[in-house]
């Protein structure tokens, strides 16, 4: 099945200034910090003592999802830049709104937050590794990677400074000043997500003509990709015979990707390549819509623990 795309989608570069990239880096760091102040070292210790659900989630996120994405690309043969954009999104850690959506869906929110933390830490190594491995395995995207010559170490540093550092600072603050983080938690989470959404809207507005021109070419692919990601997470958790409470968390964590990180990498290392950027931006919109809708359905049925 070949999904057609407008001519030139691989050559288009979106308008995104270096200053805007720095602002996006800062916004994502604040969003990560707002999640981290929900965590304590004991949360990690519990999962280490009983790691089955966490390990299932990590395998689903960093192994199964890239495999499923690659199979989908082979079946649909999208334009190379769109294919690489989907691979890059699949290589990113779980998205920041996954915790909120898991809570709304009646899933294990503590597992979701911890998975976000662990996948964020793991993404320092696994995100550049997955981009390089799967991108080079597919001939059309291999050409983009060769022309771009991204440095995996630079990607690791970007992910570390933007996500892992605020994660560690948030956990440390929650450990040292729990009363302060209790007051900050809810308003900071809403504020950070509001700023993030506003930033994406402003960035889209600056490229609205191009986004409208190309969004239709990636919409069906992103919807299919997101559905496969959700199905992958739920299937992996079911195969491991985890309770429904954990299945919902792993499903949502696998299906809600950190597309904001994807955009940072696309503009920072790929020059804002049109197909990649539109795929990641549409992912950022669609996974929130599908996730909230799914949570509304699941919330009607209490999950067995």
Write structural notes for this entry:
The protein is an all-alpha fold. The protein has helices at 18-36, 41-49, 52-76, 80-91, 98-104, 109-137, 139-148, 152-176, 178-206, 208-239, 244-255, 259-269, 274-298. Helix 10 runs antiparallel to helix 11 (244-255). The relative contact order is 0.21.
Q: Roughly what is the average pLDDT, rounded to an integer?
A: 84
The rounded distance between the terminal residues' Cα atoms is: 41 Å
Give the total of domains: 1
Backbone CA Rg? 18 Å
User: Helix fraction?
Assistant: over 70%
Rough shape? globular
Report the top-level CATH class.
Mainly Alpha
Oligomer: single chain
CATH fold category name: Na+/H+ antiporter like fold
Care to give the gist of this entry?
By secondary structure, the protein is an all-alpha fold. It contains 13 helices and no strands.
Features:
Na+/H+ antiporter like fold, 13 helices
What topology does this entry show?
Elements: H1 18-36, H2 41-49, H3 52-76, H4 80-91, H5 98-104, H6 109-137, H7 139-148, H8 152-176, H9 178-206, H10 208-239, H11 244-255, H12 259-269, H13 274-298
Helix pairs in contact: 1-8, 1-9, 1-12, 3-4, 3-6, 3-10, 3-11, 4-6, 4-13, 5-6, 5-11, 5-13, 6-7, 6-8, 6-11, 8-9, 10-11, 10-13, 12-13
């Amino acid at each position: 099945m070949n999904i057609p795309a407008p001519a030139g989608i691989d050559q288009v570069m979106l308008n995104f200034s270096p200053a805007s990239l720095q602002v996006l880096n800062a916004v994502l760091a604040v969003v990560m910090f707002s999640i981290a102040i929900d965590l304590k070292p004991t949360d990690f210790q519990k999962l280490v003592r009983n790691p089955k659900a966490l390990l299932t989630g990590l395998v689903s996120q960093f192994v199964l999802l890239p495999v499923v994405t690659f199979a989908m690309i082979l079946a649909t043969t999208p334009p190379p830049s769109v294919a690489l954009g989907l691979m890059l999104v699949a290589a990113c850690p779980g998205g920041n709104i996954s915790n909120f959506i898991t809570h709304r869906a009646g899933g294990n929110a503590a597992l979701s937050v911890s998975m976000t933390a662990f996948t964020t830490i793991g993404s320092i190594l696994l995100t550049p590794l997955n981009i390089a491995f799967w991108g080079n395995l597919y001939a059309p995207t291999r050409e983009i990677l060769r022309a771009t010559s991204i440095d995996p170490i630079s990607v690791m540093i970007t992910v570390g400074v933007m996500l892992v550092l605020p994660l560690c600072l948030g956990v440390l603050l929650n450990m040292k000043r729990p009363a302060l983080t209790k007051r900050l938690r809810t308003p900071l989470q809403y504020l950070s997500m509001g700023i993030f959404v506003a930033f994406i809207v402003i960035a889209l507005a600056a490229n609205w003509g191009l986004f409208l021109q190309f969004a239709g070419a990636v919409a069906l692919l992103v919807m299919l990709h997101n559905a496969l990601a959700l199905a992958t997470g739920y299937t992996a958790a079911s195969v491991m015979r985890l309770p429904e409470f954990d299945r919902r968390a792993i499903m949502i964590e696998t299906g809600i990707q950190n597309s904001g990180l994807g955009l940072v990498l696309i503009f920072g290392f790929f020059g804002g390549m049109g197909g990649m950027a539109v795929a990641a931006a549409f992912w950022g919109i669609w996974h929130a819509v599908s996730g909230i809708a799914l949570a509304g359905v699941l919330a009607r049925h209490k999950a067995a623990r």
